[in-house]
Specification:
- The complex is a heterodimer of chains A (about 350) and B (about 240).
- In chain A, about 50% of the residues lie in helices and about 15% in strands.
- In chain A, helix 7 packs antiparallel against helix 8 and helix 8 runs antiparallel to helix 9.
- The termini of chain A are close together.
- In chain A, strand 6 and strand 7 form a beta hairpin.
- In chain A, the strands form two sheets. In chain A, strands 1-4-5-8 form a four-stranded mixed sheet, covered by helices on one side.
- Chain A has about 350 residues and is α+β, with helices and mostly antiparallel strands.
- Chain B is mostly helical.
- Helices cover about 70% and strands about 0% of the residues of chain B.
- A two-stranded antiparallel ribbon of chain B has the order 1-2.
- In chain B, strand 1 and strand 2 form a beta hairpin.
- In chain B, helix 7 runs antiparallel to helix 8 and helix 7 runs parallel beside helix 9.
- The longest helix of chain B has 29 residues.
- The model of chain B has no long low-confidence stretch (mean pLDDT about 85).
- Classes of the chains: A alpha+beta (about 350), B mainly alpha (about 240).
Chain lengths: ~350, ~240
């Protein structure tokens, strides 16, 4: 049990702070590249792949700080964690060498092509296929609700490679270049943030080395890839930023309303700190165990973090309806906290299926 | 930052759990604690965090915690008296409500224990009871209600443990003790409500469920009502900035 960051984690946070302060006013992409140069973007990658050989818990501390500084934590999350770590764990030596150093250096951004119109949270219900073509594969289908695909040069894509003996069998994972031939990307505006991308794959040809992990058995990789997003640090960092905004706005209110708002703020700050403890604990389960996060601990964390983020956004939206632009952005973004990386029904089901219930912290 | 118990803490919790389960229903918290062995020596070595583990286990059995609270408070205020203490303190010396933030936190841990027990019996019931040929736990509505209550309890426990750990490591965060307690009391009551609902009509007549339900509400008497606790937290914490544990 430890209720605060350890010295190594705190040291990493201080490094990020120093670097960001030194680059004040710079383009966020430049700051990310600077973080990459200092091997801060993927501290949990091995040294030969641009990391520092540290633990996932150290990476979490950096990731949280990046989000708190308002940098692009989602792009970082998808690229470094979802795609990069899947390559690290399941990729061949060549696949790792080709991509991981660039990812860790902040030079290569990646996206996930999992969701489809009829297969959102139910990601095994996919219709995209990959059929053998010479030594390689031809991939066809339409992927939806993908983010940052338009600015990515790498995508991790799920496809059916055979009918399968059950829903989970017959899925394979491929690495492809979304800027290559046969790929059409259509942005779809969404309520907040970067647009979603609808990505059409029209007989996209990939070589044999595009297959990531075992053929027909890519389900495990899919779960692993979205696992980190199922913790909720992104919700927390936004909640903390919005709380600071609410505090500022509260100062302009009449004293009687300020008094009520102070109570709300104390509740939410406490709730956020507790959710943060659950989030770090979920990450810790990977460090303490076999390298994989306990999915039940992550389920507790994801819902707790999502809820506090939504509660903060709701307070801001209701109390400061005519407030600054961030309020509207918060209200628009908050629903996604319990949609991205799977609707909460999945996590609630996991929690309810555990016996005895309550393993989150035991 | 993590919420893992270390081996000694885990052993303590498991021992308490085993002894509490084996003890007669009327056994008090202090009597169960005594069965852990080397009572005073052990007590002197426990941090507040460990005491919270002890009180959570006592909460699962809705044990009388008057004497053990008095003893623990004596440790805080006058450890030399604790060492010389040989016989149970008279009932009159029990404090009805929490006397300090540290006392408040162990009472909150007791509430967590009550909530946990409510969830455990509700979950067991839902896992054996069928409706329309299906186990209750297989139906989304009751399963998710239990899961939501479990999340509330996990969040509450995380807050409690952070503060107890902070007390043991000289991290100044005591102003948040009323907030932690309000969260624990509310979570315990939520869990109790879910237990009654899962048991259905039996939930309003089964002696164990009724006892736990009442005990959950009694934590508001023990600790203070959530509204007054939040009021205290607001007055004490608002200007302290973000709580980062």
């Amino acid at each position: 049990m430890r209720a605060e960051l350890d010295a190594e984690q705190a040291g990493l946070v201080a490094e990020v702070d120093r670097l960001a302060a030194g680059a004040s006013g710079a383009d966020p992409c430049d700051i990310m590249a600077r973080l990459g140069e200092e091997r801060l973007l993927a501290v949990h990658y091995p040294v030969i792949y641009g990391g520092r050989g540290m633990k996932l818990a150290h990476h979490a501390a950096v990731y949280e700080r990046i989000g708190e500084l308002g940098l692009s934590d989602l792009a970082y999350l998808v690229t470094v964690q979802a795609v990069g770590c899947t390559i690290l764990e399941y990729g061949t030596r060549r696949q790792r060498e080709l991509r991981l150093r660039d990812i860790a250096a902040g030079r290569l951004f990646a996206s996930l092509l999992f969701s489809e119109q009829q297969a959102g949270s139910d990601i095994v219900g996919l219709a995209t296929t990959a059929v053998p073509d010479g030594d390689g594969w031809k991939i066809s289908g339409t992927k939806t609700w993908s983010v940052y695909t338009g600015s990515s040069r790498l995508a991790l894509c799920s496809a059916r490679t055979r009918k399968g003996t059950n829903r989970y069998d017959g899925i394979s994972m491929f690495l492809l270049d979304p800027t290559g031939p046969g790929v059409t990307i259509v942005p779809t505006p969404r309520a907040a943030g970067e647009p979603y991308c609808t990505v059409t794959l029209d007989e996209v040809q990939v070589g044999p080395d595009a297959l990531l992990g075992p053929l027909h058995d890519g389900w495990t990789l899919m779960v692993s890839a979205i696992g980190y997003e199922r913790i909720g640090f992104d919700c927390l960092t936004r909640a903390m930023a919005w709380l600071a905004g609410i505090e500022q706005e509260t100062g302009q209110l009449p004293p009687s309303r300020q008094h009520v708002m102070k109570g709300e703020l104390v509740r939410l700050r406490f709730q956020a700190a507790n959710a943060r403890a659950l989030a770090y604990h979920a990450v810790h389960t990977a460090t303490a165990g076999d390298g994989h996060m306990d999915e039940i601990a992550a389920a507790y964390s994801k819902i707790a973090c999502g809820r506090v983020g939504q509660a903060v956004a709701r307070l801001a939206g209701l109390e400061f309806a005519n407030g600054p632009a961030w309020v509207h952005a918060a209200v628009a973004e908050a629903p996604e906290f319990t949609i991205a990386a799977g609707v909460p029904d999945i996590q609630l089901g996991l929690i309810a299926a555990e016996f005895p219930i309550g393993r989150a912290v035991r | 930052l993590n919420l893992d118990l270390d081996p000694a803490q885990r052993r303590l919790a498991e021992t308490m759990q085993r002894l509490a389960a084996a003890a007669p229903a009327a056994a008090t918290g202090w009597e169960i604690f005594e069965r852990v062995g080397a009572t005073k020596e052990l007590a002197l070595t426990l941090g507040l965090f460990e005491w919270c583990l002890v009180f959570e286990e006592l909460g699962t059995g809705v044990r009388d915690i008057g004497l053990i609270r008095t003893a623990r408070n004596l440790l805080d205020t006058s450890p030399e008296d604790f060492e010389n203490w040989l016989s149970p303190l008279p009932q009159a010396e029990f404090e009805a409500g929490p006397t300090t933030d540290r006392d408040l936190l162990v009472c909150a841990a007791y509430a967590v224990g009550i909530g946990r027990r409510c969830l455990e019996i509700a979950h067991a019931r839902a896992s054996e009871r069928t409706i329309g040929g299906r186990l209750l736990i297989e139906l989304q509505a009751p399963a998710h209600r239990l899961a939501n209550a479990s999340i509330d309890l996990a969040v509450a426990r995380a807050g409690l443990w952070r503060l107890a750990w902070g007390e043991d490591h000289s991290v100044a965060a005591a102003c948040w003790a009323p907030a932690a307690t309000a969260t624990c009391v509310t979570a315990a009551v939520n869990c109790a409500h879910e237990a009654v609902q899962i048991f259905g009509a039996a939930g309003t007549s089964d002696a164990d469920v009724v006892r736990l339900y009442r005990a959950a509400y009694q934590t508001a008497e023990l600790c203070g009502s959530p509204s007054e606790l939040w009021q205290a937290a607001t007055e004490r914490c608002h200007d302290r900035g973000a709580d980062r544990g």
